[in-house]
Protein 1
Amino acid sequence: MAFITERLREIKRRRHRKAKLAKLKAKYLAANSKADKEKFAAKIKRISFYMELPTAK
């Protein structure tokens, strides 16, 4: 496989997005101040508009 097809690029983008969202969720849950939570919430919404924000358990 000497070249990357569009499908493989799409899969790579999805995997990268999923990993990035997981990191942002962890930072959102670990944030103490309201300003930090709002900052991470805005980033999460920018990447995935329909995703619900995680809640601390």
Protein 2
Amino acid sequence: MTVHDIMTQAKSLSQQEQKELIKLLVDALAVTDVRESELPKRYRLSALRGLGADIWRGIDAQDYVNELRDEWDQPQ
């Protein structure tokens, strides 16, 4: 069925039915638009490589972990 076929059938509807059809179509499109906009963007994990590297520059990883563990052991 084509859009032209649907349009021909829609012309046979009463004016009220045509308005209802338009409303249903608009509502269906609005729901589709919202669903698509709510979808999370997909990224490759490899695209995150190096992200934040400048923050950790000059910091020894093992020293950092040791400091965290020492903080956990201290009473609050």
